[in-house]
Amino acid sequence: MNAVQTYRYLASSTLGHGALALQTSGGPAPNPRFFTGFLTTPQAAAVGLLAVAEVARTRYHRPVSPASLDPVVTGSRDRLRFESFSGCCGVYARLDALPEGLDGDVVEHGTTNVDVNTPLREALSRVGGLDPLHLSVGPDDLTVSTMDGAVVEKKVPLPVRWLRGFAEVQVLAARFEPRAELAATEAAAFLRRLPTGNDRSVLWVVPAGRSLRLTSRPTAGAVCLAGASRLVALRPMLRFAKTLRVYGPTVAAGSAPVPSVWELDTGALRLSLTLSPEPYRGFSGEGAALTALAGDDVVDDADLVSALLSWDPTIDVDRLAVQSDLDADRVRGALAQLGTAGRVGYDVSEAAYFHRVMPYDAGRAERDNPRLVGARALLDAGAVHRDGPVVTVRSDGQVYRVRELPDGALTCTCHWWAKHQGQRGPCRHALAARMVTSNQVEERV
Q1: I want to staple 2 with a disulfide (CB 3.0 to 4.6 A). Which of 44, 52, 109, 157 is the partner?
Q2: Residues 185 and 313 in one domain
Q3: Alpha-carbon distance 442 to 445, whole Å?
Q4: Close Cβ partners of 338 (under 8 Å, ≥ 6 residues apart)
Q5: What separation in angstroms does the CA of 380 have from each of 298, 361, 414?
Q6: Tens digits of per-residue pLDDT, 193-204?
Q7: Residue 254: CATH number of its domain
Q8: Range 278-306 average pLDDT
Q9: Domain match, 67 and 133 both
Q10: Residue limits of the SWIM-type domain (predicted)?
């Protein structure tokens, strides 16, 4: 299912006479210009943009013929971000053009879809090291390249899976920590040793001297590498990179597969790939954002925090806490809620959220999530009853019991929990129990 929005472009994206004219559909003001200027590392920027576009047109699980999807671009004060998901929604790619990579002004702030069509991809592939690359992001851009002034209207399908993917990635990434950093030479040697075919194995990597070592089992400090061939999109950027950084959540011996982030840094640009826990799993079904969607108080907090966001390159949680008169944990909960509507993302390199706006209403992620819809239906039906530490849920003629573990997680006697052991978020019974035990709704007897 797609959420179809209609955008108007003043012209097609083109590259001519050494200048890139990248057209977008606009932002918070009529015909804004997000950025006008040169990219200081043109060839690396062209390669990075191609990588983001390539991820958008690739299905890593059960590959099929590529279908181009439009990456998302955000202008945010002193930088530009280009984002996409793979066709299978199991890889999230982002290229950050940092202040050092831009020679121009971000005079407007906003988020839109970018038309990266086949002619543009071919043109970017021909950008040489001495070619200047002028980027004009906005529907009324004037560039060095000759423009014909034609108006192009495009209906851009934005898959609902992308919204749910954005919601899940920011919740998951906020739990990540830096796990390893490799110099360019060691990074190139490691990445080039990885398989390039349709690899479905789940491996783990651990620091080993100046490089990384592959292992088949998790240990403390390890990073999950599921479907190593999915890192192939990083390879063209290797010749420009200074470092490779790897991020992931805390794991221990016996841990289940988890997501990870692999980031190449050139100094002016950062290209990162976030991999889902297993090659067949798309981020849209991970369920990490469900708890953030379940509460009523957090919605009110999100409305308050939303009004205070100001397109800063990174979001200062402490500043928002002071301005909103909420504690830092409630602010983080509000940001997680805003992320479910695509309004914030998370940058592991900065260890901070960032602001963007997607063409979805705030309630879309909740309405489109069957587990959350099912949990609210159980509450409305009076099927959820709290009895001390146990919550009993009656559903489809069955009785399920939800218990809270010492770490605060909930277990359930249903088939979903038995199959996934909490690795793909809570089941609908646990969500309903959380709503009751957190006093977010009144229990209906």
Answers
A1: 157
A2: no
A3: 9
A4: 302, 305, 306, 309, 344, 362
A5: 20, 24, 20
A6: 887 776 778 999
A7: 3.70.10.10
A8: 75
A9: yes
A10: 400-438
The CA-atom distances, in angstroms, between 362 and each of 7, 187, 237 are 20, 40, 36
* 85: helix, strand or coil: strand
Q: What is the average pLDDT score of the chain?
A: 79
CB atoms within 10 A of CB 100: 14
Query: What tokens were used for 82?
Result: 């280009």
Structure tokens at 145: 């390249």
Residue 310 within any structural domain of the chain: yes
Question: Average of pLDDT values for 294-298?
Answer: 65
In a domain, 443, yes or no: no
Domain endpoint, select from 226, 249, 283: 283
- Report how far residue 165's alpha carbon sits from residue 360's, in angstroms, rounded to the nearest whole number: 13
Tokens of 384: 């959820």
The single residue listed with the structure tokens 């083109």 is 14
The residue-averaged pLDDT of 169-179 equals 92
Handedness of CA 324, 325, 326, 327 (dihedral sign): positive
- For residue 368, name the pLDDT band (cuts at 50, 70, 90): low
| Pairing outcome for strands 410-412 and 398-404 | antiparallel
Mean pLDDT to the nearest integer, 248-258: 92
Same domain assignment for residues 221 and 331: no
Amino acid at 196: T
For residues 265-282, give the mean pLDDT: 94
Together in a domain, 218 and 338:
no
What was the pLDDT predicted at 362?
55
Does the predicted model carry a pTM greater than 0.85? no
Q: Where is the domain boundary, 318, 348, 364?
A: 364
The range of the structural domain enclosing residue 189 comes to: 1-283
- Shared domain check, 237 and 201: yes
Q: Are residues 177 and 102 in the same domain?
A: yes
Res 296: pLDDT: 59
Q: Is the predicted pLDDT of residue 28 greater than 80, yes or no?
A: no
Within a domain: 109: yes
- Are residues 306 and 397 located together in one domain of the fold? no
Q: Are residues 349 and 253 in the same domain?
A: no
Element (H, E) at 135: strand 133-137
**Highest mean pLDDT of the ranges 30-39, 67-76, 425-434:** 425-434
At 437, list the tokens. Answer: 């035990």
Backbone angles phi, psi at 381, to 5 degrees: -85, 0
